[in-house]
């Protein structure tokens, strides 16, 4: 019998608790996610998340964070500074990238910050009151009286 490890599937989604939706998205995408730049997704509270992306070498004005159709899109483009330089070894990757994260319903971007070569994006899940579970009081038969309904004649 084969066993499946679903841990890699959680890397590109934020806020999903239902495996069925996650499986549908993974099975429908034929393109493999790139591994650059590396990132972490952490749960900071019950309804709060943080995505941390390693963006060493990029300035704040070269980074772009956008939310479009339940997708968080992080991209960066470095201005070509190597025009007058000669490198003996170039190991710091400052190539352009675009990374997409699928956001669950009712997850919104709360803010972003850039410090020490890391881009931190804070996310919050805000479930509307209409969708939250409600407790319904049950009346006992002894305490409840039938309600009188007044009828009005209709011509």
Kindly state the percentage of residues in helix: under 10%
Number of separate domains: 1
Q: How does the major sheet shape up? A: 4 strands, mixed
- SS element count, helices: 1
Shape type: elongated
Share of residues in strands: 25-35%
CATH-defined architecture: Sandwich
Number of strands: 8
Strand order of the largest sheet: 1-6-5-4
Rg, please? 25 Å
- The assigned structural class equals mainly beta
- Taking the alpha carbons of the first and last residues, their distance comes to 73 Å
**CATH class type:** Mainly Beta
Tell me the CATH topology. Immunoglobulin-like
Order of helices and strands: EHEEEEEEE
Mean pLDDT: 78
Topology:
Layout: E1 13-14, H1 19-28, E2 39-45, E3 48-54, E4 63-67, E5 71-76, E6 97-103, E7 107-115, E8 118-125
Parallel strand pairs: 1-6
Antiparallel strand pairs: 2-3, 3-8, 4-5, 5-6, 7-8
Characterization of this structure:
By secondary structure, the protein is mainly beta. It has one helix at residues 19-28, and strands at residues 13-14, 39-45, 48-54, 63-67, 71-76, 97-103, 107-115, 118-125. The relative contact order is 0.20.
Summarize the structure.
By secondary structure, this protein is mostly beta strands. The protein has one helix at 19-28; strands at residues 13-14, 39-45, 48-54, 63-67, 71-76, 97-103, 107-115, 118-125.
């Amino acid at each position: 019998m084969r066993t499946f490890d679903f841990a890699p599937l959680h890397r590109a989604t934020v806020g999903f608790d239902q495996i069925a939706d996650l499986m549908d998205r993974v099975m429908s995408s034929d393109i493999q996610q790139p591994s650059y730049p590396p990132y972490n997704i952490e749960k900071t509270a019950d309804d709060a998340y943080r995505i941390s992306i390693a963006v060493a070498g990029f300035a704040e004005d070269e980074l772009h964070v956008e939310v479009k159709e339940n997708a968080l899109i992080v991209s960066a483009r470095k201005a070509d500074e190597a025009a007058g330089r000669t490198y003996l070894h170039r190991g710091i990757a400052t190539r352009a990238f675009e990374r997409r994260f699928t956001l669950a319903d009712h997850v919104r971007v709360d803010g972003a910050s850039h410090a020490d070569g890391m881009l931190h994006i804070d996310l919050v899940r805000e479930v509307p009151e209409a969708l939250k579970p409600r407790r319904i009081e049950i009346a006992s038969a002894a305490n409840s009286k039938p309600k009188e309904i007044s009828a009005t004649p209709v011509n």
